[in-house]
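Dear colleague,

Following up on Tuesday's group meeting, I ran the structure prediction for the two-component complex that the binding team flagged. I've pasted the input sequences exactly as they went in, so you can double-check that nothing got truncated or mislabelled along the way. The structure tokens for the whole assembly follow below. Feel free to forward this to whoever is handling the docking comparison.

Inputs:
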Amino acid sequence: MRYFAQRLVFYVFTAWAAVTINFFVPRLTPGNPVDSLIAEYQGQISTQAVHSLTVLFGLDKQQGIFQQYISYLGQLARGDLGISFHSFPTPVSSVLAQSLPWTVCLVGVATVLSFAIGTLLGVIVGWRRGSLADMLMPITTFFASIPYFWLALLAIAAFTGVGSFLPSAGGYDPGLVPGWNGAFVASALKHSLLPAATIIVTSVAGWLMGMRNMVVTVSSEDYVTVAHAKGLSERRVMLGYAARNAMLPSVSGFGMALGLVVGGTFLVEYVFSYPGVGLELVSAIGQKDYPLMQGIFLVITLSVLAANFLADLAYMALDPRTRREG
Amino acid sequence: MTLHVDEPAAQHADADEAVLRISGLSVDYGVGERAVRAVSDVSLTLRRGEVLGLAGESGSGKSTLAYGLTRLLAPPGVVACGTVIYHPGDGSEPVDVLALDHAGLRRFRWAQTSIVFQAAMNALNPVDKISAQLTDVIKAHRPDLDRAARIARARELLGLVGIPADRLDSYPHQLSGGMRQRVMIGMALALEPRIVIMDEPTTALDVVMQRQILAVFTRLRKRLDFSVVFITHDLSLLVEFADRIAIMYGGRIVEEAPAAQIYRDPLHPYSDGLLHSFPALRGPRRELAGIPGSPPDPRSLPSGCAFHPRCPKAFDPCAREVPILGAPGEAGPGAAQGAGGGARSVACWLHTSDRSTA
């Protein structure tokens, strides 16, 4: 329990540091939001509007930096991440609320599936090393070595087009209104099949290889020999003794991979024009939409932290040696 | 390549007492041309209630022999030839261990032959509680017992080896090395097997702990009456603990005799060297001497007697011919089996009277 508390304190501290950096970085850059917005809407904003914008952004109050910091923390606590320049005056939080679920569902589910499939195959390949199952290794590694965007483009070329079941772009049928109804969910699922499949195909090799190697290593441990000598069933030895110990390093890796779900896969969304956070970030960068970029970075940082925290918890549950009584 | 001829006819009175009969067992690592023979042509009989010590330097093949006879060899190890016959005490048919199918082997393991491994540190699964590791083997072999009965048995086993029952909920890393080894001994006795193979069970422990473990083990052996194959490089331990000792060198048994005889009067120069390479626990002080040279590489064993390059007494035939394991002063077929009740055998040209037979 003490270990748990230590980790929690560590993560809270890191989150605070991330939030603070997020506050200071834009204030270190030259210019102010009003100038940026004017630059964004060149010639479309009248001079009278400049003043009202200054008031809107709260730049007329002449607060000290510390007061600004306090009110920034207060805003964050209310979930207020500022106003997007590009889709002015939509708040950044609503932009994120629209795109985040898409990314989390698509990439999150694909990452979990990839981990599950790769780990399971890794156990089998490692356990039956030297058999035909070894063939899986070069095959999956081949797919992992293809640059992702290239594979995705090939997949679009091969599997989509006129008359194909699979759509080539988007998150759902443009004719539908997002909502919790059968038609929309079915359409969203259909649109996610190809991106999810390409993610899995390119990432499964890493899990497979890591797990296989660990299973091979663990198989020569004494406790696995003891388990054999005890006359336990092959299945029990493989899962309860070999795989159970071999998967510990993979769990840490999985935590990291989950953390990168939000930030690390804009390529997927870009190629498939998928309405997620990655695509949002790319367009925010293109349009110099600083508040949106800031919001996305904050979300990425926090999700990495949250995922790592979850991985820590999982590791504690799986490996009794990391639990410290105290 | 075998000079040793097996002859079941010469077995005497204690054929009914034999628990395990190994004959002509050879173990290779790898197959085909590049195979390396780690154990060659070993014949041993383990009798009921007896402690058979197996001694030798690292790489002499003693552990490989134990893994070979329990079919636990990890690839590329393979049993090249020989038989291992287990005689169940209940009057049923002898079992050919090497011919058992998977299911039969699973039933045989631990129920008849259990093993205590060298490094207790690694022999317990680090992520499971002691209770889970003691009960899973009971569950696998005794499906009739329910959970409460299994836990009760696990509790009893810990009691046998002198560990408080509340340790059932501990993980292996929470136990000391000695405790872990005692848990392993308790685990080995879970199904009351008739044979316990101990592969250097005390090597990783300090001397005090070694004593404790052996005391526990001796007590349990008197009570439960099982036979032991005790593998170690520590001949001093065997002299005290074993009834009979077989000395291995280069994958062969070079001498086999009752423990007291080996201690008082080792015949093979290698046994003699081993005995003089450690201080005696009791008795007068004497000078220690090592054996010059290092153990042979099993990929290229010396010709003839594998020990001859290091042997202080090597003479003419040693480099040419492999000496036969036989009663001292005799040679030839049949002599080895004379090793029954108290007799001894040695594979050395010094103790072979008729050298022309080979």
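The first helix of chain B runs from residue 62 to 70.

Cheers,
M.
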